[in-house]
Write a structure and sequence with these properties.
Chain B: It is a multi-pass membrane protein. Chain B: Keywords: Cell membrane, Membrane, Transmembrane, Transmembrane helix. Chain B: It is found in: Cell membrane. The complex is a heterotrimer of chains A (about 290), B (about 375) and C (about 240). Chain A has about 290 residues and is mainly α. Chain A has one domain (about 1-220). In chain A, about 75% of the residues lie in helices and about 5% in strands. Chain A has 11 helices and 2 strands, in the order ααααββααααααα. Chain A has helices at about 1-30, 40-55, 60-80, 90-115, 140-160, 165-175, 175-180, 185-210, 220-235, 240-260, 265-280, and strands at about 130, 135-140. The longest helix of chain A is centred in the first third of the chain and has 31 residues, at about 1-30. In chain B, α11 crosses α12. Chain B is mostly helical and about 375 residues long. A two-stranded antiparallel ribbon of chain B has the order 1-2. Chain B has one domain (about 5-365): ABC transporter involved in vitamin B12 uptake, BtuC (Orthogonal Bundle). With about 240 residues, chain C is α/β, with parallel strands linked by helices. Chain C has 2 domains: about 1-80 and about 155-240, P-loop containing nucleotide triphosphate hydrolases (Rossmann fold); about 90-155, no CATH class. Chain C has 9 helices and 9 strands. In chain C, α3 runs antiparallel to α5. Chain C is globular and about 50 Å long. The N and C termini of chain C lie far apart (about 35 Å). Classes of the chains: A mainly alpha (about 290), B mainly alpha (about 375), C alpha/beta (about 240). At the A-B interface, α4, α7, α8, α9 and α11 of A face α5, α11, α13 and α14 of B.
Chain lengths: ~290, ~375, ~240
């Protein structure tokens, strides 16, 4: 029972990361109708920035801040530099451009930092602590929860309570109308990409040190998991991304805990297959979004 | 181009390439074999993505299915004492069949998906591959993969050709076969149905075409082609392992199909050539530079991937019809005005009608410098 | 200032096909001008050209202040005092009534003025006041039209453009909304350019009427005069 509880809570922490990453995909999808296949590589690039800053300054927190700033800037540059110019004549073009970016970013990271795994420090221990007689969370898990809760909560407030958020939502829902109302939609698009990329960077920074190890391909699996979450939750649904992320995280934790970590990608594939076959419409979203 | 002309062209290409192996060094013959193996996988993508509009990142997994099918059947047959042409042909057939079966399964699941959803699902397939091989490591050999007992070249040829040249012969013949079959399909009824479904599934369904069945069939055909490619790779490298069929390899295949010119089998040829030649050129160039061991190790591989990624982005932004599209346009300019309106025919079966032109991925050229979104 | 909006020789269209041919049009400041005409006469194209969604291939579009609008980007129009109530209302259905309204005044630096405007808009459109938190898709057609009009007014425009405001509305609601335009003109000196297929009600409310046919202006007169010209009505407006 102890183990079950631990795996469940650990899964929730892992799920929070997936939720954040899936949410970052949802943000771009809502703003630009693009699934950004370079999101993982962009997040890893930001994590390398954090790694470097932490190595130079000796402070984890400086690295954390650097990852957020770097993620923000990378998102803006990718949108301004590439995605803006990809015509939407075919839905495949943005996907292909994203894949090109994925290759380019991973290769550049490999050239600059090498392909070897790097060890990253964490500010808290990932050993589980005992509470009320049972071991549930590690202090790192709590830290992960707190970080993601703060950033996601901040984003929710930004989007729902501020004039800027209103502009962002208006240009996502109805770009042509928003422009007529004076919203500078190109800027909003860049900002949407930047915010999403910063969120992705945070998720990568939190999950890489304990689960994956830092290397240029570190986020490939995370992207696939987060994409699965998006399929389950619906690319249009931020709430679906968060709930789906937590659910998939717990599921993965059980699978890894009871059957071994190597099975996690297979479990994801089976889950994806099951959702697509049994309920192709997904659990939170409309079917028309995913079939032609 | 008539079917007879296509067959003549295919035979001529095969004879020419086989003749070439007598001139080129044996390492180049080996590279030729690899090009041909890749070509099978890329040509499958050309059909699936170019004509079918379904973007798959699973091609590496399907090639892996071919390679493993080859390995398992060849090893089993060798253990049973089989030898001779049978030990070559049966495993190759198994490779095609094994990949086609996996393709059917994927197609059934993914046939209803489109665009990013399909890409994501097939990406999951590739990412799960190492997990699958290590889960069934007693059969599939885990991370190490399998070593394969391969049937060597026939005794009669041993004095005449090298192992590499023989590998190239086999790969050339198989890939020409695959390409010819794919060209027949693309220019026949199936190709028309596939493009109709891609361009407007509802209209296609009203015209009596079953969109789901057409898409699944495209998946199976594309997978069978990939299986042949995987089988050839397995034969040439005498191994099948998860490391060779990673996500990066899938991206390479897609890159080759897109950069060559998606929707055109000639483009697939350019793509396959580029995929083998560019890394070779880059590593030749960097080895001349006398870099430090650390730096050259970091550049090794990565530089080629970076160039591929950059090329892929540039092609999507500037020339969505790829190399083949550029060649066709250049060819069109060279011609006198009266014939300029006709699409120039190249070495490969060119589209017989405007309807077969790759219309999904490439943007109309007038719209290339895309305006910012939301305008 | 002689006019709220002056078009001189405006030619515009889609691709190489011109829809508007050398349009000359002057909208008096503080007046309501109705542009009427059959389907396909180029009415919506005219509005799209004024708001910058479509660029004229020839001619100029100027505000009464002399400001040349020909090169102004769509998103800057509202900063020059031009607001549009688009065809089919154009309410952002995912946003609430209040969010839609706020969006209209968002470009203004003066937050307090925008807040005051919101209060006034709620006074002007009582049904909206009762449904502040309702999402756009929950509104009736009449409420949506009020919302779109209210949102345009939130921008405190000098020139208000309306594309077929009566489309799909009950006659009573149409009369209510058109009546509101007259009040706004009288109270605030708003200049209005109205595109309508519903000729009768449009000419009742307007000061000036313009008949558009196949991309050309065939008549431009006082609205009352135009309404009585039976020949013109028979020829171009079909009643």
């Amino acid at each position: 029972m102890d183990r079950f509880l631990f795996l469940t809570f650990d899964g929730l922490a892992r799920g929070a990361v997936l939720a954040a990453f899936a949410l970052s995909l949802v943000l771009i999808w809502r703003a630009a109708r693009i699934v950004n296949f370079a999101q993982g590589a962009m997040a890893v690039a930001a994590t390398y920035v954090a790694f470097t800053v932490t190595a130079v300054t000796g402070s984890y927190w400086a690295g954390l801040a650097a990852a957020l700033v770097a993620g923000f800037l990378i998102g803006a540059v990718v949108e301004r530099g590439v995605m803006r110019f990809v015509g939407n004549t075919s839905p495949l073009n943005p996907v292909i451009a994203g894949l090109g970016l994925l290759m380019l970013i991973q290769a550049v990271l490999g050239m600059v930092f090498g392909n070897a795994y790097r060890t990253m420090v964490t500010p808290f221990s990932s050993d589980p602590v005992e509470m009320f007689g049972i071991t549930v969370f590690s202090s790192y898990d709590l830290f992960v929860f707190a970080c993601i809760a703060v950033l996601v909560g901040g984003l929710v407030l930004l989007f729902t309570k501020t004039p800027l958020g209103l502009r962002l939502r208006a240009s996502a829902f109805a770009p042509d109308l928003a422009r007529l109302l004076g919203v500078r939609t190109p800027r909003m698009l860049t900002l949407g990409w930047a915010l999403s990329s910063a969120l992705g960077a945070l998720a990568a920074l939190l999950v890489i040190p304990t689960e994956l190890g830092l290397n240029p391909h570190a986020a490939d699996a995370v992207f696939v998991y987060a994409f699965t979450v998006a399929v389950i939750g619906g690319l249009d649904s931020p709430a679906g991304a968060v709930l789906g992320g937590l659910a998939v995280g717990v599921l993965l934790s059980w699978v890894s805990g009871y059957w071994g970590a190597t099975l996690a990608p297979v479990a994801i594939l089976v889950l994806l297959l099951a959702v697509l076959l049994v309920r192709p419409g997904g659990i939170f979203s409309l079917a028309k979004e995913r079939t032609a | 181009m008539s079917v007879t002309k296509r067959y003549l062209l295919a035979a001529a290409a095969a004879v020419l390439l086989i003749g070439l192996t007598f001139i080129i060094p044996s390492f180049t013959s080996y590279q030729l074999a690899i090009v041909c193996a890749y070509l099978c996988g890329i040509a499958g993508l050309t059909l699936l993505t170019g004509a079918g509009g379904q973007l798959s990142l699973g091609q590496a997994a399907l090639m892996a299915a071919g390679a493993y099918s080859y390995a398992l059947s060849a090893n089993a047959m060798a253990d049973a004492g089989a030898e001779g042409p049978l030990l070559l042909l049966v495993p190759l057939a198994a490779a095609v069949f094994g990949a086609a079966v996996l393709g059917l399964a994927v197609g059934l699941a993914a046939g209803r998906l489109h665009g990013p959803y399909l890409a994501g699902f097939t990406m999951a397939l590739v990412v799960a591959l190492p997990a699958v091989t290590s889960t069934f490591s007693s059969v599939l050999g885990g991370d190490q993969g399998l070593w394969i007992t391969v049937e060597k070249r026939p005794t009669a040829l041993r004095g005449i050709v090298s192992t590499e040249a023989w590998q190239a012969w086999l790969a050339v013949i198989c890939s020409v076969l695959v390409l010819t079959l794919l060209a027949n399909l693309l220019h026949g009824r199936f190709g028309r149905h596939l493009r109709a479904v891609r361009d407007n599934p509802v209209a296609a369904a009203l015209a009596g075409i079953n969109p789901a069945r057409t898409k699944i069939t495209a998946f199976v055909i594309s997978s069978a082609a990939a299986g042949m490619g995987g089988g050839l790779l397995a034969y040439t490298t005498q191994s099948a392992g998860p490391g060779a069929y990673s996500l990066v390899f899938s991206l390479f295949l897609l890159m080759a199909a897109v950069v060559g010119g998606i929707g055109s089998l000639t483009g697939a040829v350019w793509g396959a050539l580029l995929l083998v030649a560019l890394p070779h050129l880059i590593s030749t160039a960097t080895s001349r530079l006398e870099l430090s061991a650390d730096l050259s190790q970091r550049l090794d591989g990565n530089l080629a991937v970076a160039v591929f990624g950059a090329v892929l982005i540039l092609v999507v932004l500037l020339a969505p019809q790829g190399i083949q599209g550029l060649l066709v346009r250049a060819g069109g300019r060279l011609r006198p005005p009266p014939s300029a309106s006709l699409p120039p025919r190249s070495t490969e079966p060119a589209p017989p009608s405007p309807a077969t032109a790759p219309s999904r991925i490439p943007a109309p050229s007038g719209q290339l410098p895309a305006t910012p979104k939301g305008q | 200032m002689t006019g709220g909006l002056v078009l001189e020789g405006v030619t515009a269209g889609y691709g190489s096909v011109p829809v508007l041919h050398g349009i000359n049009l002057s909208v008096e400041k503080g007046s309501i001008t109705a542009v009427v005409g059959a389907n396909g006469a180029g009415k919506t194209t005219l509005l799209r050209t004024v708001t910058g969604q479509l660029r004229p291939t020839a001619g100029s579009i100027r505000l009464g202040t002399g400001k040349d609008l020909t090169r102004v980007p769509v998103e800057e129009m509202v900063r020059h005092g031009v607001a549009l109530v688009p065809e089919g209302r154009g309410v952002i259905t995912e946003l609430t009534v209040e969010e839609n309204l706020r969006l209209g005044g968002l470009w203004r630096k003066d937050r307090r003025a925008a807040a005051a405007m919101l209060t006034r808009t709620y006074e002007l459109f009582e049904p909206l006041d009762r449904r502040r938190k309702a999402a756009g898709h929950q509104l009736s057609g009449g409420e949506r039209q009020m919302l779109a009009l209210g949102r345009a007014l939130m921008a405190a425009p000098a020139l208000l453009l309306l594309d077929e405001p009566s489309l799909g509305l009950a006659p009573k609601v149409t009369a209510q909304i058109l009546g509101m335009l007259r009040r706004l003109r009288d109270d605030t000196g708003l200049t209005v350019l109205l595109i309508e297929q519903n000729v009768r009600s449009a000419l009742t409310v307007a000061d000036h009427g313009v008949v558009l046919n196949l991309g050309r202006i065939v008549a431009s007169r006082a609205a009352a005069e135009l309404a009585e010209d039976t020949d013109l009505r028979h020829t171009y407006l079909g009643f």
